[in-house]
Amino acid sequence: MLSAVDSPFAPAAANCRRRFRNPSQAVLLLALLAVGFGCARPGPDPITWDGARAALNRARAELRPVDPQAAEEIERLVADAERATATERAAPVWRREPGSGAAAWLRAVESARRNLKEVRALRAAQAQRLEQLLERAEVRIAAAGSRIGLSGMSGHDAGQVAAGRTHVETARRLAEHGDYPAAIDHAAEALNLAAELDASWNRNHVRFSDPSLLAMWRGQAEAAIDESRRSKSAAIVIDKLRRKVFLYKSGRRVAQYDAELGANGLERKRYSGDRATPEGRYRITVKKAGRATKYYLALLIDYPNAEDQRRYRQGKANGSIPRRAGIGGLIEIHGGGGSGRDWTDGCIALTNEDMDRLYPQVQKGTSVTIVGTL
Amino acid sequence: MSESRRVMVAVGLVLAMIGLAACAKPPQATIDQAKAALEAAGQAEAATYAGAAWDKAQQSMNAAMAEIEAQAQKFALFRSYKKTNELLATAQADAAAAQAAAIEGKAAARAAVEQAIAGLEASFAQADAALAALDTCRKRPKGFKADLDIMKGNVEGLRGQLANVKSTAAAEQYLQAKTMAEQLAAQVATTVTDLENARTKLGC
Q1: Could you tell me the strand order of the sheet in which A234-239 lies?
Q2: Which of A68, A83, A158 sits opposite B47 (nearest CB)?
């Protein structure tokens, strides 16, 4: 084994021994140096990031319900910023990167600012869209609601109106909670229901703009008026769409009264129980008063006429009329009206006061022409 | 003690210190546990049902991770993960609390929706009973049948909304389902009142 004295490093070792009388001093010096480096004080942290933390927390809370991914991005950036700040503070002088913490916080703040701007713009757009949808839905559902009780509006339609109102109110409540996407879904559903209601209403009314039907109805009315003129007698013309009863004398219109129809009164009566009001030319067969009617005063007409019977037979033959349904009868112009809705089983209802005026001016045999519209 | 022996002792001490320092590694198992706890809280929808607790858990985790980073920057001899362990324990506890709060919040929201649905079903049963009574009522003023049809349609329309509430609840969108149920309850209550009033008025 080579001794220290014999080795080529002997002079250097001797020199070292001269400087440090005790070699352990050198080792201790090395240890102290290491301690010195290890205990290097953390870098200064002149900026307190509490304000940024609080602002980012608020941003995250605002973003979360609207854009969860953006909120998660903020969470990740805040975590990065916390680590960068810790790194900057704790790193030894030679590895320290001044400003890295600040840069990380700024990245987080900038991202939050950008996301908040986008989300607020999105929410403003959603709020605007919601308001537009709700405005349209409310108007149309209110219009449909006002038609409830009129002919052509069924119980199903009433249910659609109720459902539409629920959707509108639910949309408003969800918007209050900031859930605009769900609110928009409900408003759109309300609008869909309103559209269905309008379509249902229009289906019931489309035939009133049919030129051939209009020509036929006008022809029937003119014939009745002409007959009244020629025979110097009274004639009644009923416009179902306008819900009016017109009284003619010697061909001149002398009075008009508001009328209410069957619950499906805008349809043409085809069979018993369809609650539709007939259309065609009829005559008064019986005048009822007192205990003969439960509707104050009544004028029974001769429904079904020959045309009604022909259509009934045809309906039976092609299966469009239920097999056990009769053709019906007992169609009257009677009192008890005034509710402003179509409620009868097919009759025409006037207020008792109007019946008081009409009743004495007509007699058995007076012509009654019921048309869709004029 | 001879000089060479003292040197050997000093060198041994330094080596022992370095050895000890080299053993001071981040507590990976504890870190993993804390991260798993936070992930579990996230999966429990803590962000939705326990926002404050979720934020707190995330902040605790951030503090722990920052401390780990701080230690990693130190000279190996002087790293200490004692504080890290404490912070990780806090983060794990906060995450567990967030998870528990989320589970509780979600259960509460679900219970509220179920209660609202039960209330609605009771209201519909009441409406059905009133409609049945009206349907068999001997006193039938003019327009009664038309009105009854509308009232029935009204109840059916609202019942369709109950189905919507149930499907929203089934999709675990409890907060939305609750809002829908509350709104529907108000409308059904009005309808039931109208039906009961009609029933009373007609003596059915």
Answers
A1: A252-258, A244-249, A234-239, A367-371, A280-289, A297-301, A332-334, A348-349
A2: A68
Residues of chain A neighbouring B48 (CB-CB closer than 8 A): 64
| Residue spans of alpha helices (H) in A39-67 | 50-66
Going by the DSSP 8-state scheme, the letter that residue A21 receives in this structure is S
Which amino acid is residue B88, in one-letter code?
Answer: L
Q: Do B69 and A87 touch (CB under 8 A)?
A: yes
In this structure, chain B runs to a length of 204
Residue A1 above 50 pLDDT?
Answer: no
Q: Which residue of B has its CA nearest to A28?
A: B10
Tokens (6 digits) for A27: 């080792």
Break chain B into its structural domains and give their ranges: 26-103, 106-198
* Calpha distance A150→A343 (Å, rounded): 8
Give the pLDDT confidence of B145-194 residue by residue, as tens digits.
Answer: 888 888 999 999 999 999 999 999 999 999 899 999 999 999 999 999 99
Contacts of residues A139-144 at CB distance under 8 Å and 24 or more positions apart, as own/partner, are A140/A191, A140/A194, A140/A195, A140/A197, A140/A198, A141/A165, A141/A168, A141/A190, A141/A193, A141/A194, A141/A197, A144/A194, A144/A197, A144/A198, A144/A201
Query: A-chain residues within 8 Å CB-CB of B7?
Result: 23-24, 27
The A residues from 33 to 72 touching B (CB cutoff 8 Å) are: 34-35, 37-40, 42, 53, 57, 60-61, 64, 68, 71
**Which residues make Cβ contacts (< 8 Å) with residue A365, sequence separation at least 6?**
A283, A284
A246 with A253: CB under 8 angstroms? Answer: yes
b/e map of A183-210 (b: 16 or more CB within 10 Å)? bbbbbbbbbebbeebeebbeebeebeee
Of the candidates B82, B74, B89, B109, the one whose C-alpha atom is nearest the C-alpha of residue B33 is B89
Q: Is the pLDDT of residue A135 over 70?
A: yes
CA angle B147, B149, B154 (to 5 degrees): 95
Map out the domains of chain A with their CATH numbers.
Answer: 1-39 (no CATH), 118-207 (1.20.120), 211-371 (2.40.440.10)
B47 contacts chain A (CB < 8 A) = yes
Task: Compute the nearest-CA separation of A148 from chain B (Å).
Answer: 8
Residues in chain A with CB shorter than 8 Å from the CB of B175 are 177, 179
Question: Is it true that the peptide bond before A304 is cis, omega within 30 degrees of 0?
Answer: yes
Of A82, A162, A275, the CB nearest to B66: A82
Q: What is the mean pLDDT of chain B?
A: 88
